[in-house]
Amino acid sequence: MHTAHTHHDHVTATTATTATTAYEDAPSIVTEIAWVTRATTDRFLGQEPDREFWLRKAAVLDRIAIEESALYAPEVAAAAVSTSVLAARRLVEADVTHSGLSPRGSELVTDDDHRDHVRRAYRQWLLALTDQH
């Protein structure tokens, strides 16, 4: 049984959500890439991206970076990791702008902090979807 949680409950949690936990019920990476691509096309048609766009984009790039880091040497995986960090920082920027998130208050300092934020937020988003069905 799932209980309802607010955005604030999960996003400001001090314990890190592991990648395995965050993405255990996630759609496939290919499905998420397709969704982000469609949403990007909509953006070019004049629609501003919403939080779901930034969240799903950051999460799929984080998942790709995790896989690359597991398969390849650090210097080979570096580009994927760097891209995932940039996307994570963009999600944090959106959360700061639209939800009042404080990076300092949430201790979002390092690249890993930002990627952990993505994982917590994505897990919360998945749980909210499950609760709706």
Task: Throw out a few tags for this protein.
133 residues; mainly alpha; 6 helices; 71% helix; globular
Average pLDDT over all residues: 83
What best-fitting shape do the alpha-carbon axes yield?
globular
Strand content: under 5%
Tally of helical segments: 6
Radius of gyration using CA atoms only:
15 Å
Relative helix content? over 70%
Euclidean distance between termini CA atoms: 12 Å
Explain what this protein looks like in three dimensions.
With 133 residues, the protein is mainly α. Helices cover 71% and strands 0% of the residues. The protein has six helices and no strands. Helix 3 packs across helix 4, helix 4 packs across helix 6 and helix 5 crosses helix 6. The protein is globular. The N terminus is likely disordered.
List the helices and strands and how they pair.
Blueprint: H1 7-11, H2 19-23, H3 29-44, H4 51-71, H5 74-99, H6 111-132
Helix pairs in contact: 3-4, 4-5, 4-6, 5-6
Task: Explain briefly what this protein structure is.
By secondary structure, the protein is mostly helical. It contains six helices and no strands.
